[in-house]
User: What shape does this take?
Amino acid sequence: MKLKNISAALVAVFLTASYSTLSLGATIFSDNFESYANTAAMQAVWGAAGLGTLDTAFGNPGQSMRHPGGTDNIVTVPVQQASASTPLVYTADIYDDGTSANKRLTAGLRFSGVANLIEMGMYNSPNHYAVRAVLPGPSWVAFAGMTDDAGNPINNAPVVGWHRYQVTLDGSNATFTIDLGSTGIINGTAVLAAAWNPAGVDQIRLGGPSNLSSAGGGGNFDNVSLVSIPEPASFMLMGVAFVGLGLMRNRS
Assistant: This one.
């Protein structure tokens, strides 16, 4: 077998192994809202104090949580820590009807004692798609340099659709991305310095940021997940990079 074929085979092996390792990342919480028969059933998981209701007719796909802004629905999880060796990845889909830049509606993480406050979604100052990572770290920052799926610059303004937000927390930084329309193409990235408070996080929150109302109307949430990525996944991805580099050298 030629060396380049061996390298190609090794890349395939590493890719398979790395995807398997990533899939074994510890899922701390995951909800696509499909298991609930009604709002009461959803509230049994997300709490009855929040203003969210089950939307049985609209989701990404299927069902979702409809929220007007204001008091959050909260899921409490065991305290989680984020580090360079075991980052936390938080993902949520949020529907924007595109009618107002005055919305305040976010998916958040935090410690119940108010530390490691992470939020992503729609905010009116600065508007429109924005994030924050505070205690410690910066408050609201709008996604800058956004592009459409073809790579053309676009304004940070309301776009109709289900948008996928994700943040990776590695103990030093919070790296946020937004995928407009949930197409698999990243349309904006924001990296905020966010030194991790050892208190960790123990709440997943959907609704108004810190329970704030949303004068511009509400939206929907779907496909919410919090995953801890184990260190071996990082090593496997490094292996892919090294073997791929070898393959490129062989071709040259």
